Amino acid sequence: MSRCHTIAAISLSLCCVAVLAAGADRIFTTPNPAAELKRLFPAAGAFSTLGGEPLHFTAYAADPKASPAAAPLGVAFWTTDLAPNEHGYHGPIHILVGMDMTGVLTGVVVTYNSEPYGYFSVEPPKFAMQFKGKKVTDPFRVGGDVDAVSRASISIGSATRAIRDSARLAAKQLLPEAGK
């Protein structure tokens, strides 16, 4: 093999590794999140498919196909899509976040984590409940408006930053009036 072919093969291999590494956070741990979406938007009659920029679901009071005038109730998105570089102690924490059209969080659902202390930090319902009703403009400060958990500060901090950063990005791009 010539030197050019060797360099090309190495470059191609590195590109493949980079693509696989970038896609590693885009793991569908919950391929059909219908139940989780319904938890975030109990009054919703329909949800869009995952799409758009940034990637999100839209919750509707009624099916927009049957009722074209159906106004959206809010949006839901994965923190791993909007804040992909935010990792806990052991990796990304997959959190589905719901937000109404005014920029208020309707809730969060932790769908997957590999954190060593996840069972007492990000998995308990108490962790998720503290985000319901938060505005995107709230501080999201661990030890302030978000409870700190001893021995799990990396996990709690990462999950909180992922929720805050992805919610603010979603509000800025999908709800321009909400972040003001």
Uncertain parts: 4-25
Structural domain count: 1
Estimate percent helicity. 25-40%
Count all strands and give the number.
5
* C-alpha end-to-end distance: 60 Å
* Average of pLDDT: 84
- The whole-angstrom Rg is 19 Å
Taken as a percent bin, the fraction of beta residues is: 15-25%
H/E series: HHEEEHEEHH
User: What kind of sheet is the major sheet?
Assistant: 5 strands, antiparallel
Shape: globular
Count, helices: 5
List the strand order in the largest sheet: 1-2-3-4-5
The secondary-structure class comes to alpha+beta
Describe the structure.
The structure is a single chain. Strand 4 (94-100) and strand 5 form a beta hairpin. It is built from 5 helices and 5 strands. The protein is an alpha+beta fold and 180 residues long. It has a 5-stranded antiparallel sheet, sandwiched between helices. The chain has one domain (30-174). The protein has helices at residues 3-24, 34-40, 79-82, 125-129, 153-174; strands spanning 46-47, 57-60, 72-78, 94-100, 105-112. The longest helix is centred in the N-terminal third of the chain and has 22 residues, at 3-24. The radius of gyration is 19 Å and the shape is globular. 33% of the residues lie in helices and 16% in strands.
Kindly list the characteristics that best describe this protein.
33% helix, 180 residues, 5 helices, globular
